[in-house]
Amino acid sequence: MSTGGFRIPLHGAQPAAMQPVTGTRVHIDTPHLVTRSLLASDVTPEFAQWFNDAQMLQGLNLAPLNFSVDGLRAFVASFDNVQHFLIGIFSKPQGQLLGFYNFSVAPQHRVATLTLGADPKIKIGREVFWESWFPLCDEMFDHRGIDKITSRVLTTNRKLLFALIDTEHFVYEATLKQEIAGKDGKRLDVMVLSCFKDLSLRPKKASTAPAPDA
Question: Which SUPFAM superfamilies match (predicted)?
């Protein structure tokens, strides 16, 4: 999954006078999913367990986070829906959390960095990400002041590359050779995929997202 998207809060809660401005939460309904800003109350022991899962962290190239339930709730609550978004993908009608999007926004440049995570114990087809991603992409471009979204994906992360490549949104921009050091010290390549508000920069040959299985 994309590297560099997460921000880990290092300080405790700020005094009320110093609290940052918070934006409107994201909430998108589609036929099979609800894609919305995560709340502290969404954090369960099961969510904390898979958020700390070694397989998911390996895809993000992150060291163990070792979040407790309370620690993860504080982390989720720290996102302001202005420059930092943590958005969950929930199934209907069960309301099961399947995965999440993390956006870090640079407002002066109107660009966002995307990180995508998924419950490692659930087999999720790319149609799930497509159903949630297409309207979320429109939300970020039309209502959040973003012109470009970039995801930096480890070339070893086949699952995420399969989800993003050959869609009507993402364009391959570059492969950065030996861009980062893995947790084992080995150099890793990173593929840069981007999505643009400018339709002329979208893929020339659009792909139709497959319908989820009934």
Answer: Acyl-CoA N-acyltransferases (Nat)
